[in-house]
């Protein structure tokens, strides 16, 4: 990676890789919400049940499903990603941190990682492959 041409070509991909990070993160994140709300792609509750929407896991499922969908397509990326970052921080500190300090042991590594990736997306935006970018070009 010492070739200046190679480095500059690789850096040119940076905005597009931001969009790929946003899309893949949102796709994976949405699965937590759809599992809670629709038991799809699989049930996370006993007997294949879904969570009540008017419960804390239900609200989380709504945020994960519909907020994740907005981030997936890159619409209102910054405010939605900020909201989801906060959701994941709360999930970590309420659901995981009481079970010990180490995220790998308290099962909180995904929540912590999602929190920081969404925080980054809230600062950086959705990238060139997003509806936000398309809306910006049309104005």
UniProtKB/TrEMBL annotation:
Keywords: Cell membrane, Membrane, Transmembrane, Transmembrane helix. It is found in: Cell membrane. It is a multi-pass membrane protein. The keyword Cell membrane applies. The keyword Transmembrane applies. The chain crosses the membrane at residues 12-33, 53-73, 80-99, 111-131. This is DoxX family protein.
